[in-house]
Amino acid sequence: MEKLIKAPIFNLISILAEAQTFKEWIPMVYKSEISYEVSHFRKFGEFNIKSPWPWWNRSTYIKVRAFPVEGEPAIIICMKSLPGNKWIKGIEI
Description:
By secondary structure, this protein is mainly β.
């Protein structure tokens, strides 16, 4: 999925930087933790969502990278679920 968000960069980054508080802001999220952080712009976290019956709750690890767009007042943020059970440099999940 790709989405262009026309908003002040500071506002968007401020929300994403507080991912560990999503469980307080979003009613269906019951766990949101930043598991490992290389820098402010490269990290991964665990997120758990309450699902209504008859479905089971869902859990995922998401890795995030962000980098500026050269010559533009913009950034690109890439978010993907982690494949397998390892992240960079063999960090086990």
